[in-house]
Design brief:
mainly alpha; 69% helix
Length: 391
């Protein structure tokens, strides 16, 4: 274990030339440099955030949902049946014609009744609009709160106005309490999302989102350990600037406020383009790639950090393409086509009991979510699936 630890914490990888861990171990009185142990605070804080989320969703978000006439409604539940339950859990959730015929004969049921049972059973595992509203309201509240705190903190920090301060004196840069709180809060939030995945209703993108949260935790921790927290705080703030707007648009979607949803999505799009395609490359990447090269010089973890940021910028371009495509469709059709919906969000909609029922309850071109809603969901699921720093 000692050999493995020595290999992992190799100074030649983590630190600039002629700097050792011993140089950072004993700072002057009143001075604190980042240490790995500092990040352990995020774990109990994540449990606290998880507990706060449960209380928030149950008492505050749920009350807001009811005020907007979004009811929790459990919907139809499949009648208990051990044979069908075993097939559903261990074989298939969508039986083909052969399975349906076999089950029909085994249970002496009509094929249509077996199909209906599987539809009801699938719907039991799908979150209701009420559940999604509460989840989005929690995310909106956190994203807006952490962005407000981060922006206020950075407004008073010299490296927001001159990014060269991210590298002056590196790596001997004092970890202030404000920066520490910012980093640990973001880290704890993503730890809490990992915890909550195992208690939330399971979705199709469970594994993708788990990997996303794990990657985010890893990158935040990586930038803290090698004391790139100053530029890391800029990256966090740039990404937080648009996330809460998308969550707000989803809230308007669930409340069936079409115009507000469209307006918020436009606001999100503008904020996304400005922060990800203008501010991030000109402000952040320019500092990490060129200013740091001139002031500190390259070293192995510097290369890895910049490679990851460049990959992130490529993803920004891809996501911007998705948003632009939505905007073009909106201009051509007056509003975005209603029929295109993400697999993630469409999996949360209840299936009608029959094709006839579906036609009765959903007139042409109004099935599911209206306007920008389906695309908001699709965009959010894709962005979360690939994002490295935030959702």
């Amino acid at each position: 274990m000692a050999a493995l630890s020595a290999w992992f914490w190799n100074e030649r990888f983590w630190l600039p030339h002629n700097v050792t861990w011993a140089d950072l171990a004993d700072p002057a009185p009143g001075v604190e440099y980042p240490k790995v142990g500092h990040l352990l605070t995020a774990l109990p804080l994540a449990l606290c955030i998880f507990a706060v989320r449960i209380v928030f969703e149950r008492f505050i978000a749920s009350a807001c949902a009811r005020r907007l006439h979004i009811q929790a409604g459990a919907g139809r539940r499949a009648q208990p049946n051990a044979v069908l339950e075993k097939v559903f859990t261990s074989i298939t959730k969508n039986p083909d014609a052969r399975h349906l015929d076999g089950l029909s004969k085994q249970l002496d049921w009509q094929v249509r009744k077996v199909q209906r049972w599987f539809r009801h059973r699938r719907n039991q595992d799908k979150p209701s609009t009420h559940t999604k509203f509460c989840e989005s309201m929690w995310r909106f509240t956190f994203y807006f709160g952490i962005f407000t705190y981060g922006f206020q903190f950075l407004w008073q920090s010299p490296w927001m106005w001159d990014t060269r301060h991210c590298w002056y004196g590196y790596p001997y840069q004092v970890m202030t309490w404000g920066l520490y709180y910012y980093y640990v809060s973001e880290l704890a939030f993503y730890w809490s999302l990992m915890f909550s995945q195992f208690t939330d209703i399971k979705r199709k993108d469970f594994l993708i989102m788990f990997i996303h949260h794990l990657a985010t935790v890893g990158l935040i921790s990586f930038s803290y350990v090698n004391n790139m927290a100053r530029v890391g705080s800029l990256v966090l703030c740039v990404h937080d600037a648009s996330d809460f707007l998308l969550e707000a648009a989803k809230l308007a979607n669930y409340a069936k406020s079409q115009r507000l949803c469209d307006f918020l999505f436009i606001m999100f799009s503008v904020a996304f383009f400005i922060t990800r395609l203008v501010i991030f490359p000109i402000w952040v990447l320019n500092s990490t790639m060129f200013e740091s090269w001139a002031i500190v010089g390259p070293f192995p973890s510097w290369w890895l950090f910049n490679i990851l940021l460049l990959v992130l910028q490529v993803l920004h371009i891809f996501w911007s393409y998705l948003i632009a495509r939505i905007a073009i469709k909106a201009m051509l059709r007056g509003k975005v086509c209603n029929d295109v919906r993400s697999d993630i969000e469409s999996s949360s909609e209840e299936e009608p009991d029959s094709a006839t029922d579906g036609l009765k309850t959903s007139p042409p071109h109004t099935k599911g979510e209206n306007g920008l809603n389906g695309h908001c969901a699709a965009l959010k699921s894709r962005m979360q699936s690939h994002s490295s720093w935030s959702g």
